[in-house]
Amino acid sequence: MTWLGFGRHIRQTRRDAFMENDRLIKARNLAGVKLITTGSKAEGLTSFYESDTDKMFVKGDVMCLEDGLPGDLLPRQTTLFTLNTGSCYHGHCGLLLKRRGTARCPV
């Protein structure tokens, strides 16, 4: 597998490179948003120009809770969403606004 570019050392090097890229992008300040590479790039299975790139942007003042979990203990500035998995295809969910927080963000 190493000859094909899928050896353990090569995959780890790719993972490290994408994590470093995420860190450098976050250093440019994206309004307090944490950037995480996901999917095949995060697993080190594809190189930079191979396949698509999946990114997850995480805001500190937004929370997604599973349906039925209480959000009463979270601060009022936190915007809460509920994940509705009952009426969607497998691997997908609906995002329903449960409570709008006091913190505002244009994103």
Unreliable residue runs: none
Q: What series of H and E elements makes up the topology?
A: HEHEEEE
Task: State the shape.
Answer: extended
Number of contiguous helices: 2
Order of adjacent strands in the largest pleated sheet = 3-4-5
C-alpha termini separation? 42 Å
Mean pLDDT: 81
Give the radius of gyration.
18 Å
Give the tally of β-strands.
Answer: 5
Instruction: Report the β-strand fraction as a percent range.
Output: 25-35%
Derived structural class = alpha+beta
Q: Biggest sheet, in brief?
A: 3 strands, mixed
Structural domain tally: 2
Report the helical percentage.
10-25%
Multimeric organization: single chain
What does this structure look like?
There is one protein chain. The protein is of the alpha+beta class and 107 residues long. It is extended. The protein folds into two domains: 1-59, no CATH class; 61-107, no CATH class. 22% of the residues lie in helices and 27% in strands. It contains two helices and five strands; from the N terminus they run αβαββββ. The strands form two sheets. It has a three-stranded mixed β-sheet, with no helix packed on it. Strands 1-2 form a two-stranded antiparallel ribbon. The chain has helices at residues 8-27, 39-42, and strands at 33-38, 54-59, 62-66, 79-84, 94-99. The chain starts with 7 loop residues before the first helix and ends in an 8-residue tail after the last strand.
In short:
By secondary structure, the protein is of the alpha+beta class.
Architecture blueprint of SSEs:
Elements: H1 8-27, E1 33-38, H2 39-42, E2 54-59, E3 62-66, E4 79-84, E5 94-99
Parallel strand pairs: 3-4
Antiparallel strand pairs: 1-2, 4-5
